[in-house]
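User: Can you predict the 3D structure for this chain?
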Amino acid sequence: MTTSTESAVTEFRRLSDSDPEIQAHGKYFSCSFLWDMEEKKFLVRMHRGRIEELIVDPGPLEDYDFAVRAGADTWREFGRQTPAPMFHGIWAASFQRDMRLEGNLLVLMQNLRCVTRQIELLRATGPLV
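Assistant: Here is the predicted structure, written as structure tokens:
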């Protein structure tokens, strides 16, 4: 893991674990998900609104509930302070861009606000790729 990725991951974890909105909604935010950013993958294991584990480039047998997959350029645009149109949310990007939602989408929908908030936090840390 490069120093820039490591510092972005550390900052993301700090912001997520201390975010008032995630903590307000996160009592039942316990799941695992994969952010596939083409150049890097991030497996996030959440427990009661806190990041229990964040694995960079997990192995192929690591288990997760759902995945959000997109090209590196899409994730970079999500990480900008003011994203371009169609990069402001996962639904817009999945309808118009290259973002795909896979796996147990019920778990994603049950935790949608918290996952969306975590993606918004990428605007503070910068994209992890």
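The radius of gyration is 13 Å. The beta strands are 31-36, 41-47, 50-56, 66-69, 100-103.
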